[in-house]
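not sure who needs this but someone in the group chat was asking about DUF554 domain-containing protein from Metabacillus hrfriensis so here u go. i didnt clean anything up, its just raw.
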Amino acid sequence: MVLLGSLVNAAGIIIGSLLGLLLRRIPESMKQTVMTGIGLFVMVLGLDMALESEQLFIVIISLVFGAVIGEAIDIEKKLHQVGHWLEKKLSRNQTGDFAQGFVSATLIFVIGAMAIVGSLDSGLRQDHDILYTKSMIDGFTSMVLSSTLGIGVLLSAVPVFIYEGGIAVFANVIHQYVPESLLEDLISEITAVGGILIFAIGINMLAIKAIRVANLLPSLAVVAVIIVLMKFV
């Protein structure tokens, strides 16, 4: 089922939000320890995906050119600008924590490499592991947010499902029109590049180093272009 990962992610946000509404006070030490555990798992998941590559040279080339493109555009900065703009627009005529909770949670859960890579994996391979992992992260995050910002956080599950589900369905449609041999190479190398991005997210979660992961997102497009060119040129 193409939308299973997106559904689980949305459910994780809803469950986490409900728990947060019930548990208004979550110890800071518990937050840190749980997020550390999730961060470690995210790194292991990313590493496992990265090792699926059969052509590591393509992976490094894709990351280099993707980073150059991403930094030139500065995707990370633009995503944050869009987030701040949306928050101001949607919260302008509303008061209280409801709007702030909805907008803040939506931006946190939607803006990021994990949502894109996970949705692509769901659509191309019917593999929902990344979105399952993201659902755990989002579930705990929504629990923390809703404990302070209220029920608006719970409703962020709707745009998250639409966003991730849309990407997954689009990827699945493309999958049906791509030759099997080309698709296998695309899946293998896109998974490897995506795994490295997921690993970088884990590094960010553990505060080991601040990596602008969004600026590496073009690597996913670059690797696809390289694979296609190798097949047809």
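also The chain is about 80% helix and 0% strand. if thats useful
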